[in-house]
Design a protein that fits this description.
It is a multi-pass membrane protein. Belongs to the TonB-dependent receptor family. It is found in: Cell outer membrane. Residues 47-152 form the TonB-dependent receptor plug domain. Pfam families: Plug (PF07715), TonB_dep_Rec_b-barrel (PF00593). This protein is mainly β. 6% of the residues lie in helices and 56% in strands. It is built from five helices and 33 strands. The protein has helices spanning 2-18, 58-64, 69-73, 141-144, 421-425, and strands spanning 35-36, 44-45, 52-56, 79-83, 91-95, 103-107, 110-112, 130-137, 151-157, 167-175, 179-189, 193-207, 229-243, 249-262, 270-287, 290-307, 310-331, 334-349, 357-371, 374-385, 389-401, 406-417, 438-450, 454-471, 477-496, 499-512, 529-539, 542-551, 554-555, 563-564, 567-577, 582-589, 608-615. The protein has a 22-stranded antiparallel barrel. A hairpin with a 7-residue loop joins strand 14 (249-262) and strand 15. The longest helix has 17 residues, at 2-18. It is globular and about 65 Å long. 46% of the residues are buried.
Amino acid sequence: MKRTLLAAALLAASMAAQADAGRPDPVGTENLDAVIVTATRTAITVDESLAAVSVINREDIDRLQPLTVTDLLTGLPGVSLGNLGGLGQQTSLFMRGTNATHVLLLVDGVRVGSVTAGLAAFEQIPVEQIDHVEVVRGPRSSLYGADAIGGVIQIFTRHGQPGGGLQPSFSLTTGSNNLLRGQAGLSGGDEHAWYNIGVGAQYTRGINSCRIGAAEAFTACYIDEPDRDGNRNKNLTASGGYRWDNGAELSGTWLRNLGEVEFDGSYQNRSRTLQQVTGGRFSINPTDAWKTTLNLGQNLDRYDSYENQDFRGYIGSRHDQAGWQNDITVAPNQLLTVGLDWQGERVDSDTGYLDTRRNNTAGYAQYQGNFGRQEIQLSARRDHNGQFGNHNTGGAAWGYRFDHGLRLSASYGTAFHAPTFNDVYYPYGSGNPDLKPEESRSVELGLNQRLTHWNWGINAYQTHIDQMIALDSNYFPLNISKARIRGVEGQLGIDLAGWQVQGYLTWLQPRNEDGGPNDGKLLMRRPQRTARLDVDRSFGAFGLGATLNARSHSYADAGNRQAVPGYTTTDLRASYHFTPDWQLEARLANAFDRDYETVWYYNQPGRSFFLTVRYSPAMR
């Protein structure tokens, strides 16, 4: 792993040293001109953000040829994932060493995730229906409330453009493990309105999700079931909007995904899932200096479990939400944002939860100001949770721009996470009603530079989490008194003689500091080092690319007795525009057929090949 990281760093540095100063800015996941809204809840460019951010646009998605959202996110700075056995299986995302429940997922502005488990089902988001992704690292509770300790990921689905005309799209993918995936869409717009409709489906026989043998049947999956665990899903999306001459705008979005997944288990080995996201937004400018926005949203999540064909039970959750945001220009280059948020969480299950409802109301304010070379951002929020009472969070960030595109930034932020319904209310002695909310405080220092032909950045941070929730050996949730996470993230983007190169490095030290028997141990499932290198080049109608992902070992237990080995994988890809509207894509994943796991005992696919034909006039 150390050799892999060193090689990636040396390759990036060598290309930077040889770069032609006349080359344009690199395109891809670090496009600094991209407009984002997640970092501040207002429209800014990546270059203006004082938070550490990454943006993946639709061109990047088509170029990288991912099968899943996790293919896009793996290896980004501060991001690691744990997958339970291949495509479609449950996936947990850890950001900057925090818990998987400490990452807030938004889809078109709507909070997404199970209110029972507290996890966002990244594996259920259809990648073909995504327009772009914004990843913001670091605490954001002062803007979004609970859950944003490690960061926020916002996924924006495809949409039409005003005046964009009629644009159909179509793709068909086939590949290893009998994969078959299809997508079709239609988008368009006129001077005032826009719309998009999309439909997709996917099927694969999958792999054997759990690698255990009979002698280990009670270690991980609790059964020796050496069969293929397939999955299938169907998805629908619809969005649209209208903009009046006075600037008022009304828009709505809807995403529905139905899935069926097989896995290895002694009591359950098949599930059917529903993920539905509905959102609406209305904004208007009462004056030139004031913009007001109303948001409504709902996330439905349902999980039905089976053993073969026998129904075992269901757990459903509903997350209703509403918000009112006001952006006020108080002076040139100074913006004040104030707003109110409301959330309602509901559980519907045949399991007798001790409580099934709770609400959260909040008020927040943010100030953004530019003063010559200096930038300041201040934010504060007060949440009232129906179960856990009041929580105050805040954030402060400062930036200074030197000559030659060099910028220094520093920030401090606090955040919190309320225990989930499973943590507190699950029956049969599995819930802990004495749990306290987790609270964090983070400091960060960043340095980045944008030059004509390349850009780079480095961020160092430290996060302290009090009352961090963890499971004991009997899977009973407990507060461990303290955890301390230190990390350094680096990234480098280069455009060299037509080659697009993007590299990422992360060093992480996530430690338990509760003073107990596991004091000083690393937190479970967090690798200390990760790296990713993307290299792409176009030759007229042809495109070639490769992605290298590497991570060091992690631990499967709180006592650090069971290590999950590190690994390095390489993906190769090629594309060919055989007409301006049609493209053929080929991808060889895990090209060297590495054996690896992201979660102890759960298999990952070996060498896999995928072929896609894509039609989209928008490619012109």
